[in-house]
Amino acid sequence: MLGPLLLAASGSDRIRRFVSGAPMTRPVVDRFIAGDALPDALATVRALAARGIDVTLDHLGEDITEVSQAHRSRDAYLALLDALGAEGLGDRAEVSVKLSAFGQSLPGGRRLALEGARAVCAKAAEIGTTVTLDMEDHTTVDSTLAILAELRRDFPRTGVAVQAALFRTEQDVRALASSGSRVRLVKGAYKEPASVAHQRRQDVDRAYARCLNTLMAGEGYPMVGSHDPRVIDLALKLAERYGRAPDSYEFQMLYGIRDGEQRRLAAEEGRRVRAYIPYGSDWYGYFMRRLAERPANLAFFLRSLLTR
Ligand code: FDA
């Protein structure tokens, strides 16, 4: 019940101002966000790399209203990639981009987002890494997949996230499970209407299993984006069934969630694990989605308010 309320709150400016301004929020935010600035993110990348965990970095920012903000997002990614290149981290770190931060929902947004993403893909290729497009709510899927197709012409390793919760995704993964494609399968973090998405957890989980089977059986590079132990077991079983080598797919988890499991998996011979690291000052939407996802995250937040 609380999940949908928190997801609704993630779009409210009033609640955003209240939560963002409250000093007691910060320690909880720090569990999920790797700091406000680039040096914070780089320190986290180095620490994880030392444990054999690769990363994908998300410079936080979404729901923008002006073209200048889209340019600022693009420039933040260019600076991030320059810094990763300077530290020789191109082989351990890629970046994750929300096209809304590049102006996707503004008038003429498709072109604007494509131009921003293209500049970021070019810089990523320069330092030997790549870009994955995050997936946002269902109204953005067609536009995101169209932008992906354009980017892949010049940057074939560009990846995309797809959400098992959406009915359409089973069809989308069939089209995407082809040679050279990189697809991150997630359950889906947005509140979606019953006309387009499964509403019950068990239905999402079953859809996830079917999509994962399609990706593992296919010729692309599956990225298993989940903390769910049943999903991780299933991925390992499917990899065995389809004769996949450990370096032909990877596990992805969010920064601050199941760190022990990330380390355990990464310690296994040849296993690839990537942590998704969000950083930046615009953390509100991302933070609220994490609280909505799991009662334990919310309980942790409420406890920290009471114990201060
Ligand atoms: P779910 O939340 O259903 O939990 C299942 C089980 O996992 C739990 O019962 C528990 O056993 C375990 N678990 C989960 N959280 C835990 C915790 N904090 N501590 C201990 N155990 C825990 N979404 C989206 O819409 N677009 C996107 O682009 C992305 N990108 C993305 C990247 C990466 C790398 C990840 C991991 C996730 C995303 N997501 C996303 C978010 C995704 O859609 C989803 O909301 C979360 O991953 C939560 O779903 P899970 O599959 O983790 O399991």
From TrEMBL:
<dbReference type="InterPro" id="IPR015659">
    <property type="entry name" value="Proline_oxidase"/>
</dbReference>
<keyword id="KW-0642">Proline metabolism</keyword>
<dbReference type="InterPro" id="IPR008219">
    <property type="entry name" value="PRODH_bac_arc"/>
</dbReference>
<dbReference type="Pfam" id="PF01619">
    <property type="entry name" value="Pro_dh"/>
</dbReference>
<feature type="domain" description="Proline dehydrogenase">
    <location>
        <begin position="41"/>
        <end position="300"/>
    </location>
</feature>
<keyword id="KW-0560">Oxidoreductase</keyword>
<keyword id="KW-0274">FAD</keyword>
<keyword id="KW-0285">Flavoprotein</keyword>
<keyword id="KW-0547">Nucleotide-binding</keyword>
<protein>
    <recommendedName>
        <fullName>proline dehydrogenase</fullName>
        <ecNumber>1.5.5.2</ecNumber>
    </recommendedName>
</protein>
<comment type="pathway">
    <text>Amino-acid degradation; L-proline degradation into L-glutamate; L-glutamate from L-proline: step 1/2.</text>
</comment>
<dbReference type="InterPro" id="IPR029041">
    <property type="entry name" value="FAD-linked_oxidoreductase-like"/>
</dbReference>
<dbReference type="InterPro" id="IPR002872">
    <property type="entry name" value="Proline_DH_dom"/>
</dbReference>
